[in-house]
Specification:
Shape: flat
Radius of gyration: 20 Å
Largest sheet: none
Helix content: 55-70%
Length: 114
């Protein structure tokens, strides 16, 4: 997948600069790609500990699943299906989650210090 992303990025850069260069043949298929796993999928074959942690973390996973856009989708040619705007939105939402997590950590440490 990484090689396809690099080829697509090269096509995009060439198109933006107006330079027409021959591009290497793209590799066929996604043989080495990992299976896509959703954050909110229940671990049916998991251990008891994994299920307990899944239940405890489900509210956080649910919120992240629906507030962070997934930008990993590629078409059959290795090009992004979603636009760059969606990637910017994902970056912004990651920063929002970092701020929320930092605030929660500082608030809880201040409460422990009292």
């Amino acid at each position: 997948i990484f090689q396809k992303v690099l080829v697509s990025l090269g096509k995009y850069m060439n198109a933006q600069s107006g330079v027409e260069e021959p591009i290497e043949d793209e590799p066929e298929g996604f043989e080495d790609a990992d299976a896509h796993e959703e954050l909110i999928d229940f671990p049916a074959d998991g251990t008891n500990t994994a299920i307990i942690f899944w239940l405890l973390l489900y509210p956080l996973r649910f919120l992240m699943h629906y507030t962070l856009p997934d930008v990993r989708h590629l078409d059959s040619h290795g090009e992004m299906k979603d636009g760059v705007g969606r990637a910017y939105m994902a970056t912004f939402m990651c920063l929002v989650w970092l701020v929320i997590g930092s605030y929660a950590m500082v608030a809880s440490l201040e409460a422990l210090a009292e």
